[in-house]
Amino acid sequence: MSAHCCDHETPKTEAIVNLPRYRKILWIALIVNAAMFLVEIGAGVQAGSLSLLADAVDFAGDAMNYAVSLAVLASALAWRARAAILKAVSMMGFGLYVLGAAVWSVWHGGVPQAMTMGVVALMALAANVAVAWMLYAFREGDANMRSVWLCSRNDAIGNVAVFMAALGVFGTGSAWPDLLVASLMAALALHGGWTVLRQARGELAANGTLNSAPSGTNSR
């Protein structure tokens, strides 16, 4: 086996952002996430599943994230980093929302419908694996690209967890598996958002646009 099979060279951002293929993938991801949001919001309400509803909110957030990514695709690095900060904040906000909803459901929630949870989770997993696979080649780009990749990766992990929760609900007759998975998804969102936020702030600092001093001072 040749040595270059194990080499990994980070692609240049300037080359990636102008690729028509990347733009096309973002459009596909936007449509898929918007469609799955509608499917999961309906299924989550019908099944009484917090993890499905959390996943639906996540799909909606990702659809907005892809829309933002398309809007800033050809922008300068500083603007892409600012967009990544906005997306990071939305990811972390989603995580906090789900944690609060899980705490509320401990006292007020019922047992969700395991069959609906499982079927919809598998549908969502298929959608997210397809999107994540298409975005895999762009995971080492700037903070904006990394946030798009992390969203898709976290979604696929979350779908597996929702399916496992469905099995747990079916086997135990309890809502606890659903609540635990919802909390796990919240933790993933918080971690992913923090990772993107740090990288975006680093890119702004390297670009000289973070905490930059006013340019009105003159040297004497």
Question: Care to describe what's here?
Answer:
This protein has 220 residues and is an all-alpha fold. It has a single domain, classed as Alpha-lytic protease prodomain-like (Up-down Bundle). The chain has helices at 13-17, 20-47, 50-71, 77-108, 114-135, 143-172, 176-206. The protein is globular. Mean pLDDT is 77; it is low at 1-15 and 213-220.
Measured distance between first and last alpha carbons: 63 Å
* Average of the residue pLDDT scores: 77
What series of H and E elements makes up the topology? HHHHHHH
Strand content: under 5%
Q: Helical segment tally?
A: 7
Number of strands: 0
How many structural domains does the protein architecture include? 1
Supply Rg.
20 Å
Shape call? globular
Class of secondary structure makeup:
mainly alpha
CATH structural fold name: Alpha-lytic protease prodomain-like
CATH class: Mainly Alpha
List keywords for this structure.
disordered C terminus, mainly alpha, 220 residues, globular, disordered N terminus, 77% helix, 7 helices, Alpha-lytic protease prodomain-like
